Amino acid sequence: xxxxxxxxxxxxxxxxxxxxxxxxxxxxxxxxxxxxxxxxxxxxxxxxxxxxxxxxxxxxxxxxxxxxxxxxxxxxxxxxxxxxxxxxxxxxxxxxxxxxxxxxxxxxxxxxxxxxxxxxxxxxxxxxxxxxxxxxxxxxxxxxxxxxxxxxxxxxxxxxxxxxxxxxxxxxxxxxxxxxxxxxxxxxxxxxxxxxxxxxxxxxxxxxxxxxxx
Length: 214
Hints:
Elements lengths: L2 H19 L6 H8 L3 H8 L2 H23 L6 H18 L1 H13 L4 H27 L7 H24 L5 H20 L18
Helix pairs in contact: 1-2, 1-4, 1-6, 4-5, 4-6, 4-7, 5-7, 5-8, 5-9, 6-7, 7-8, 8-9
């Protein structure tokens, strides 16, 4: 069997084991048995448990980024682009629950360098979402209506909300990717539209007064 194919089998087994058992509880013996290879071969290909876990993070992170980017259709309105991107995100996390557990729960809770690997993925997705929000502002106004700082902040908030919602959706029976994406669009798009129209909430408003100011 070609080395690349066998290595992917090992990574498949490792993602399943890490995702379901956790990084500390997972053993190289379990992973080797699930992959149908000897433990020395796993070490030969991937050096150590730490290196194997890092390889799993990188593969699952790239797969998620690719899925989100591929899900966005060019040439459609900005809200539709964001909708398709969110739906692709939730479809991927729902379809790869072990991979999402590796990224969202395991890697982040076991410190560096694992958290840094997830940070690279998050930065790439946030950069992509920043572009979509900026495009939405340009669609709404011929001039870019939102300051760069607002766009960046909205992108960070949207990605963080998507990550949290994906964890909840995967743990809640019956929640579809379409429903999760719709929930986040309903939450985020109205606020984004208000900002693009120059409306902002202010904590100094009197009780009972409108919640946004122009």
